[in-house]
Specification:
Low-confidence stretches: none
Largest sheet: 5 strands, parallel
Structural class: alpha/beta
Helix content: 40-55%
CATH topology of the largest domain: Rossmann fold
Mean pLDDT: 83
Order of helices and strands: EHEHEEEHEHEHEEEEHEHHEE
CATH class of the largest domain: Alpha Beta
Distance between the termini: 16 Å
Number of domains: 2
CATH architecture of the largest domain: 3-Layer(aba) Sandwich
CATH superfamily of the largest domain: Response regulator
Number of helices: 8
Amino acid sequence: MKVLVVEDDKTIADGLHYSLTSEGYEVFICENKQMALETIRQQRFDIYLLDLTLPDGSGYEVCGYIKDNQEAPVIFLTACDDEINVVRGLDMGADDYITKPFRIRELISRMKSALKHYTKAYASNDVVKVGNIVVNTKQAKVYKGTEEVVLTALEYRLLLTFMNNKGQVLTRNQLLEGIWDLDGSFINDNTLSVYIKRLRDKLEDSNQNSKVIETVRGLGYRMGGNHD
């Protein structure tokens, strides 16, 4: 179980590293916002413990990035227990908060509770997420961040084909099989190119560095971004 602790107080950070490692967690420490964001972009963690006050920003900004790009529990570690700070953190999607100073046993109990709740909430496959693209298959709705994206039936089926094969290179024939004859329409190779372009136009940002749908030259296509 991998834990990222974002805490600029070295004494607290070292204490958390020792205590959580003793409990069997794999612990990574970041002392500021920039380091935390760089680490999160490179790897995924099962749970995040975020200090609210950081030298170059706040835990709110780190929480926002996590919730926009992943589905993982976040617990704020804060010396500020006033209602405004607590509500702001929870409204951003944080799963819990714990006020400093705290007992390590209480923190571990809160962590286990957050992880259990997360596992139960996402045990079904109703929500599929890649990067900032979220598909709620139960409602047949697609979101880019918090904004809903309207897709045609064939675009939606094509997106699901990509998301159900995350990280895999799919040939054009495999993609055609995924959307073939959905509504009685004839889908050919040229039509597939049109739908891939439409999906890219709707899901990708013009300044986005990593494409949602990557072209693998000579082979086919692959769903890009961070995979859940």
